[in-house]
Amino acid sequence: MNCAKCCMSRRQLRFCVLFATWQCKMRAVFLGILILFKYGVYALEYNFEGEIRNFVVGQGKVYVVTDSRLHQMRLDLVEEKFKDLPNHTHPNKVNILLPFDANGTLIVCGSDTSGYCEVLDINDITKTIYREALSVVPLVDKSSMAFLVDFDQSNGVQSRGAYLLVAGENEDKAKKDTGCNFQGGVTLWNTLHSQTGDIFSTTASEPTDSCVIVKDVEWVDGFQTSSHSHSYLFLNIKSATAPSVVLLRMHNSRKKSEMTRSLKGARLQCCEDKPRRKLLSSAVISSGSPLLWVGIFTAQEEHDDTALAIFDISDPGNQVPSDFECNPKCAEVKRDKVLKPQSEVFKLSSMTSVAAQKKGSWIVLYIGTGNGQLIKLVLDKSFRPGCMKVLYRSDDDRMLFSRMHFDPVDHKYIYIALRNQIRRVAVTQCGMYSTLRHCRSSQDPLCGWCMKTSKCSTQDECSNSTWISIPDSFQKELISFQVAKHTENLNMTLHLSVSATGHLPLSCTFKSGSKDLCDSLPTAVFPKCSCSFSSQDLPSKGRQVIATVTIGDETLTESLKLRNCPDISESSPYAKCTACVSSGCHWNSSNQTCTWNHGSAPQVHIEDMCKQLTARKNYTPEIISLWPSQVSFHGKNNAVMKGKNLEQVVKIRFQGIMACNPTESPLLKRSTDTLRFNIPRGNKGAVRVCVVTADGSCHSNATITYGSQPTCTGLQPINTWASGKRQIHVLGTNLEYAETVHLSSKEIILNSANKSFWFHSDNMREYQALGPFNLSLGVGNITVPCAETLYYHPDPEFTSFGTSLVDNDVLITIQKKEDRLNLSMKEVNVLGLQKEKPFPCLILDIKSTTVLCKIVGGKAVSVDSLRIAFGNDTKTLEMTQSATKFLYILVILIILILLGAIAGVWIHRKSQRQMSARMNVRLEQLESEIRNEIRQGFVDLQTEKSDLIENVGAIPFLDYKHFALKIFFPESGPLASLMVKDISQLANMELDERCQALSALIRNQMFLTCFVHTLEEQNNFTIKDKCAVASLLTVALHNDLPYLTQVMEDLLESLMDQPSNAQPKLLLRRTESIVEKMLTNWMSICLYGFLRESVGQPLFLLVSALTQQISQGPVDAVTEKALYTLNEDWLLWQAQDFNFSPLKLKVLFAVGTEGEVSEPLEVKALTCDTIEQVKDKILQTFQRKFGFSYTKQLRDIDIEYEKEGSYIALEEVDTSSEVQGEVTMLNTLRHYEIPDGASVKVIIKKVHAPLSPQTSLKDDQNFSIKYFHLIDPDIDRDESQHPERKKLKLKEIYLTKLLSTKVAVHSFVENLFRSIWGMPHNKAPQGVKYFFDFLDTQAEKKKITDPDVVHIWKTNSLPLRFWVNILKNPNFVFSDLEKTAHLDSCLSVIAQAFIDSFSLTDQQLGKHAPTNKLLYAKDIPQYKQEVKTYYRSVRDQPSVSSQEFKAFLQEESKKHEYEFNESAALHELNKYMERYYTEIGQKIEQKAASPGLKEKMHHVHKLSENMKRSAWL
Question: For site-directed labelling of 390, which of 73, 334, 672, 1469 has its Cα 20 to 30 A away?
Answer without folding.
Answer: 73
